Amino acid sequence: MLRILNGAGFRAVCSNKKLLKDARRLQSTYDVAIVGGGIVGLATARELILRHPNLSFILVEKEKELSLHQSGHNSGVIHSGIYYTPGSLKARLCVRGATLAYEYCDKKGLPYNRCGKLIVAVEQEEIPRLKALYERGLKNNVRDMTMVDAKGIREREPFCRGIMAIDSPYTGIVDWRMVALRYGQDFEEAGGRVVTGFEVNDISMATESPEGSTEGMKHPIVIRDTKGEEVRSRFVLTCGGLYSDRLSQISGCSREPRIVPFRGDYLVLKPEKHYLVKGNIYPVPDPRFPFLGVHFTPRMDGNVWLGPNAVLAFKREGYKLFDFNARDMVDALSFRGLQKLVLRNIPYGLGEMYRGINIAAQVKILQKYIPELSVSDVLRGPSGVRAQALDRAGNLVDDLFSTEESATSAVVSFTRSPPAAEGAVFCVLEPHWKPTPPAPCVARVAAAVVVLVFVWVENSTFGENGGRETAPQT
């Protein structure tokens, strides 16, 4: 039997973190199926059902609970949109997404803390890059951003030392898993169905109508799981996170850019040292290196995370050092894109591995920002694994990108069946969004998915099936 969540089940998830099981068997056909119960899948499902309440929706998730991976293993930051190329969709979505995230949390009574962020230059050579980043933020219309000197840094973060910094008071923190679960509750309350324990291993076009069906080929897409259960739909969106490239491949889309898992290991500040950090403290990004670097991140539960490093994970959902999966490892190491990335960054990669093992080496970098910090002030903390999209040339795909036959980042692609057998498959691959580990900025990923799905959805056959007709909302 399939595991199903009803409205009461979602309320239990949000309050008790436990799922209620429902033994009822679902109907087998739906207008729209969403594969993936992380925040991207849940946000997309929620927005689609609110826009098209007369359609039937199902969301399937391979785990027994929702949002367990990237959506539940991230630094929990609401970013303001400083880093991204001016005029890009990614930049616009980040700025708008921050506002929408705060508004949604206010509406639903979800806690957050607009604690701000400092991007701190500690060396003179970082000043030009910091000023360029500030100009980028201005072009992106980032709210309330200012430049501060050393005195201004100390006024905002008394224990932080630096020459100059960007102050972004609109940056905040939130529990993104709580947000994701609330998205799911909205989806259920609007009439959508959620099925857990449904690990998709095949998406194909049917060659004949189901036995006993009077609808013919109205629902031509067949989605099967590892236990032999199946559902049929007219449209499918796959939002598979760390497995998004594999879902893309089995649904008939291109698998590239490839998803390569990178693990980020955090340190945790001891409770008696929490006074050292008030808000987010970030380094100035160095364009020579592929990842952002260590930072200080307060959490909604009162903890303070320090880090992370960035190392290749030996398993796509491997949160521990020795977690290993042979298929995942061979898949990553045999990909030419990863080989090229590694060859270009051997010293950097070795340094990241060393700092992951040696706490003192990690603390030494953190001391550039807070000199009072010592090795005795920290403990090993949690880890996350992010789905890093890589192209064949070894470039990190962290901007919105699409081709006619595949979709990466937050852009959807679809394959259309012949007119006699209507159907569409959307393949949503998720990129790395700074900072690390995975998906701390998932709200704007979800926003990007929703906006770009609607570019096609609002002009598709959805409207012909009784859905509500509205212009895409950005």
TrEMBL record:
Domain of life: Eukaryota
Pfam hit, one: DAO
Named cofactor requirement(s): FAD
Record keyword Oxidoreductase present: yes
UniProtKB keywords: FAD, Flavoprotein, Oxidoreductase
Enzyme class at the top of the EC tree: oxidoreductase
InterPro entries (UniProt xref): FAD-dep_OxRdtase, FAD/NAD-bd_sf
Enzyme Commission code: 1.1.99.2
Reactions listed under catalytic activity: (S)-2-hydroxyglutarate + A = 2-oxoglutarate + AH2
GO molecular function terms attached to this record: (S)-2-hydroxyglutarate dehydrogenase activity
All residue ranges annotated as the FAD dependent oxidoreductase domain in the record: 31-392
Family, as annotated: Belongs to the L2HGDH family.
Name of the protein in question: L-2-hydroxyglutarate dehydrogenase, mitochondrial
